[in-house]
């Protein structure tokens, strides 16, 4: 069993996560816990001894049963947000990813998957969201709205602090 890189102290949580930007037909795949209003880019916590690429391949397979190819690194995010009753400092690396087989998931609309985190299982809603709709949804980190459709020549670094 793998051990996710999440460290908790009495005062803080540290999290190391990777996320995959999957774009098909002008729409990006986003996820959110069932019943939540805010979306995130699919991915998960890196396990000790696992590469970023291995993590993304594993997470997409576990959560929605698809095989992906991991492409270039696009963004490095230093993200600060509440994790329950503690502040969290998360390092998240965002990669372009592509499907290697398009038969296992719908390429339009909404479908569901499952996430495993700290020994618990959660239902996730996955949605294909078009470029114009991105502006009107709650998406974290907020920088994703700005950078998602930019063609960047180099890796973009950002810091996001949620109040």
From TrEMBL:
UniProt protein name: Nudix hydrolase domain-containing protein
Residue stretches making up the Nudix hydrolase domain: 13-152
Keyword set, alphabetical order: Hydrolase
Cofactor(s) of this protein: Mg(2+)
Keyword set includes Phosphoprotein: no
């Amino acid at each position: 069993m793998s051990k996710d890189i999440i460290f908790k102290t009495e005062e803080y949580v540290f999290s190391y996560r990777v996320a995959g930007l999957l774009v098909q037909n002008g729409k990006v795949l986003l996820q959110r816990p069932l019943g939540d209003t805010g979306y995130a880019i699919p991915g998960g916590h890196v396990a000790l001894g696992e590469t970023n690429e291995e993590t993304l391949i594993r997470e997409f397979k576990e959560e929605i049963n698809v095989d992906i190819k991991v492409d270039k690194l696009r963004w490095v995010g230093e993200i600060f947000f509440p994790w329950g009753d503690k502040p969290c400092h998360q390092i998240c690396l965002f990669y372009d990813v592509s499907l290697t087989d398009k038969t296992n998931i719908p390429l339009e609309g909404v479908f569901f998957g499952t996430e495993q985190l700290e020994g618990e299982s959660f239902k996730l809603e996955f949605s294909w969201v078009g470029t114009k709709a991105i502006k009107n949804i709650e998406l974290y980190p907020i920088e994703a709205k700005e950078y998602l459709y930019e063609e960047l020549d180099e890796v973009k670094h950002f810091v996001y602090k949620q109040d």
